[in-house]
Design a protein that fits this description.
The protein is built from 4 helices and no strands. It has about 110 residues and is mostly helical. It has one domain. It starts with a helix and ends with a helix.
Length: about 110
C-alpha cells in the first residue's frame, strides 16, 4: 500500500511540475491551479506513504529521483527540451543511488 501511495505522490508531483512550466509564471490561472493541486496532493500522498510504513529516506529518495527523471523525459518528449548524454548519465546515477539506498535497507 505504501508504494501505491508513493506512486500517486510521484504522479501528482510530476503533474504539478509540468504544469508549472505551462503556467508561464503563474499567468495562466488553470495551469496555476494544477500546480497547486499537484504539489499539495503530492505532499499529502507522500506523507500517507510514510505513515503506511515507508522509511523517510527511502520514500523521499524514490519520490525525488523518479520525479526528476520523469520530468526530464517529459520535457524532452513533449516540451521540446534537450537532454544531453551527460544529463542522461546524471539521471542514471540518481536512479542508481536510489536503488543502492533500497538495497542497503535490506542488509
Amino acid at each position: 500500500m505504501a508504494y501505491l501511495l508513493l506512486a500517486a505522490a510521484i504522479v501528482l508531483e510530476v503533474t504539478g511540475t509540468v504544469a508549472l512550466r505551462l503556467s508561464e509564471g503563474f499567468t495562466k490561472p488553470a495551469w496555476s491551479a494544477v500546480v497547486v493541486v499537484g504539489y499539495v496532493g503530492s505532499v499529502v500522498m507522500l506523507s500517507r506513504a510514510l505513515v503506511a510504513g515507508l522509511p523517510l529516506g527511502i520514500g523521499y529518495a524514490i519520490w525525488a529521483a523518479v520525479g526528476v527523471a520523469l520530468v526530464a523525459l517529459i520535457g524532452t518528449m513533449f516540451l521540446a527540451e534537450s537532454l544531453t548524454a551527460l544529463q542522461v548519465g546524471g539521471l542514471v546515477l540518481v536512479i542508481a543511488g536510489v536503488v543502492a539506498l533500497e538495497l542497503g535497507r535490506a542488509q
